[in-house]
Amino acid sequence: MRSxxxxxxxxxxxxxxxxxxxxxxxxxxxxxxxxxxxxxxxVVTYDAGGAAEFKDAVAKGAAIWNESVVNVKLxxxxxxxxxxxxxxxxNGWPRTLSTGLGSGTIYFGRQAVDxxxxxxxISSHELGHILGLPDRKPGPCxxxxxxxxxxxxCTNPYPNAAEKAEAEGxxxxxxxxxxxxxxxx
Length: 185
Ligand SMILES: [Zn+2]
Fold this sequence. Notes:
The chain has helices at 2-26, 55-68, 110-114, 119-130, 161-171, and strands spanning 42-50, 72-76, 85-90, 95-100, 103-109, 181-183. It is 36% helix and 19% strand. The protein has a single domain, classed as Collagenase (Catalytic Domain), CATH 3.40.390. It is built from five helices and six strands. Helix 2 (55-68) links the parallel strand 1 and strand 2. The chain is an alpha/beta fold. It binds zinc ion. The site of zinc ion (ZN) has 6 residues, from helix 4.
């Protein structure tokens, strides 16, 4: 008698699990089951050794992300350590070649700086791509990922609430990845 009760109870248990899974799929990543969430911030290391005159802007952009999100932390790579992200100054337009979530190369293009775009906003924006955020153009100055479309008068280097939530969601889950992608600006 006891065993048949257990057998009858199983479908109900399976249904409950499926319902929970379905709920999670619809809800924000932050509501995922505790077991699937990261226990600590994922560290993404960067090497600004090739960033020339933009090293300070890179540090400021990293600091802005670090104060904006908790699930990922941008840190300078220790000497001799292979960095997840390299930042290289060049004469082109700023762009990011992402090799996955939290890794890739940022080209800190002088062309945009010469045209009057804010260096810290450029830094935060390109780091945003490294953190998995796409361009949102055209867009307002309040959006970091609206990038250059907000004009040279826009100096806002901070991600808005949605952009913060997007990065938190990406890095909040264990083993989260992203396909390699090139962002042309
Ligand atoms: Zn961009």
